[in-house]
Amino acid sequence: MLVSTLLSSLIVTSSYSLLPSQFMIEYNAANMKLPSLASKPEHAVVVADPTFWGPFVPRDTFTTSSSFSEESPSVAESDVSSIGEFDSEDVVQGAVSPRIPLQWVFKGLTLWLEYEQYDNDLTKAIEHAVRVYGTERIPVAHSTAIYGMTHLSEQEAIGKLAKVSEVIKRWPDMDRPQGVTQDIAQEGRPGQVCSIAWAELTLSTNNDHERALDELYKLFDVPAKREGSWTPHISLAYDNPENTILNLPDTFSYVMQHPSLMKGRRVKAISLWNTAGKMANWQCLDRVFFTNP
User: Fold this and answer.
1) What phi and psi, each to the nearest 5 degrees, are found at residue 59?
2) Between these two residues, 44 and 275, which has the higher pLDDT value?
3) Which of 48, 49, 178, 282, by CA, is between 20 and 30 Å from 82?
């Protein structure tokens, strides 16, 4: 494939990260995996001109125009689904040997934002990762709003979820992703609450999102004070951090072939999950849908 060919021929001295909105690439040339964001080394940066998928160009010649259409595609939305509910055409029979399931033990009750989809594109991206890597399937495409609440019982949290529409009529729309990231998190590092490898569509926050999140924290009486701005993203794959099979070129290539993944999205629902235990143990407890504007 063109993108794969370009990436394989690219020579860099240290590391790079990939932002499709800017097409900035930083790679770890030794193993094609990003180091932890908390300990990034000095890196060499090259930028692909998004108007021409040919040579990589110096950053000072970069143009801000994008190869992605700014017009929204017609939306053939798939309803936000519960665990195990997705179109039969998206079911992937493992083409590679399954990897060891995610071993990290998560905690508490968690709130997810769930999105509209363009022809089931997020679900298909998650299934693609299952097929390519043999990794465990993420139950639903989402962004985490609040993770690991332990101060509420399930019934108390369900009761509060039912009141979401009283304080948040509609979650502000998410802008188009700012990038594609593959990284490894280590618990205890700034902003990292677990030790996993993951690939994501990196989103951005704004004042409207921050206000909505503040209201959600108040509604659920979260005792911990928020620290810093929200860092929303949509994870496409999880893996154990040791010898992870995930790599940035694969994710980038898939996103380039499916440009709807780089569109802005409406938040369709907030769901409440019991995320205590390993990912295989997660359970959706309830879900509330936002009404269309």
Assistant:
1) -60, -35
2) 275
3) 178
